[in-house]
Amino acid sequence: MTDILVAPRDQLETRTFAALQAAGADEASARAATRAMLHASRLGIDSHGVRLASHYADVLQSGRVNPTPKMETRRTASGSAVLDADNGLGHAAAYAAMELACNMARESGVAAVGVVNSSHFGAAGAYALAGAEAGLITISMSNTDSIVALHGGAERFHGTNPIAVAAPVPDQRPWLLDMATSSIPFNRVLLYKTLGRGLPEGVAADPSGQPTLDPSLVEMLIPLGGTDFGFKGAALAGMVTLFSAVLTGSTLDHEMIRMAETHDFETPRRIGHFCLAVDPDRFAGRALYDEAMTRYLAALRASGAGEGKNVMAPGDREWAVEAERQRTGIPVDRDTAQFLGLNT
User: Fold this and answer.
1) 100 within some domain
2) What ranges make up the beta strands (E) of 33-105?
3) 273 FRET partner, CA 20 to 30 A, in 18, 94, 139, 158?
């Protein structure tokens, strides 16, 4: 048995969807979660890819997540709305919220949707990308349970609190930024632990708050910017909490049940998300936007690079990984392969 199995996308999609349905998820929830996880696995964001399928199955079966949610939307103004996820899988809620935000933005220019009573939604970039593919500039974010120390802190406070921004580019894949406000996502710590790999320097700390390279000793993550400039990541994490939790009335990071808390897999976590959509047609206009975006990215990619380096626009690395994995298959860790019934 090897540590990594490489599987084709179609097989992973079929097995992941079947596993979620077997855990009780209705078709819409299972398809949305599968779509989001495959997005991450295709683009090389393995920490948020199909390896999360077993966790979602656990929380569906335990009662923490509602397998058959009845989502409700309340329009609050011409450019704002609130979507109640009914404690279902966060992926379905986030895709629905982004679609709603885009539809409203086509009318009002800018629109935002807050999501309440939701759960973990995986890679934020999946939803921003969906909006960009619909022709709008979009932002997706979510607060999460406390796992990241404050700058200079020695205990958990913020979640990894991801931010994703995407923008359409004519005749090219979208400009796509997808980042955690911690140095790395906690799911990457778990992935490195599964793979038996050491962590990079300056991304995580042990229970005393001291940096560690051993994923089995990690008690908290260090904010984006590391030990010297972590105040930047900590402030960005707070911004995500402001929009996703404070603005929507959802659970604050430090008050939220931990995602991996095995002693309580029954109580909903009531996570908040926030989606924003901007229609370029309502600002510079589509023609000028398209021309400027094309010219900007051409200049960026032609910019001089350091020796042995290359410059890339946000998303370029992910599109290259996606193309490679389309040819060679998607790597899956041993535990996930076993859960999905893949040949190991």
Assistant:
1) yes
2) 72-77, 80-84
3) 18
Q: How far apart are CA 103 and CA 97, in angstroms?
A: 10
**CA quadruple 86, 92, 98, 104: dihedral sign:** negative
For residue 89, give both structure tokens. Answer: 């899988």
Q: Is the pLDDT of residue 175 over 80?
A: yes
> Is 322 inside a domain boundary?
no
Residues 326 and 42: their CA atoms lie apart, in Å, by: 8
pLDDT band at 2 (very low <50, low <70, confident <90, very high): low
User: By residue range, what is the domain housing residue 273?
Assistant: 4-284+330-340
The two three-digit tokens of residue 206, written as one number: 């042990």
Q: What's the confidence (pLDDT) of residue 1?
A: 40
With 0-12 / 13-18 / 19 or more C-beta atoms within 10 angstroms meaning exposed / middle / buried, residue 341 is: exposed
* Other beta carbons within 10 Å of 22: 12
Cα angle 29, 106, 167; round to 5: 70
Decide if pLDDT at 185 tops 90: no
**What number is the average pLDDT over the span 100-106?**
98
Q: 289 lies in a domain?
A: no
The stretch 54-69 carries a mean pLDDT of: 96
Angle of the 53-62 helix axis to the 27-42 helix axis, nearest 10: 160
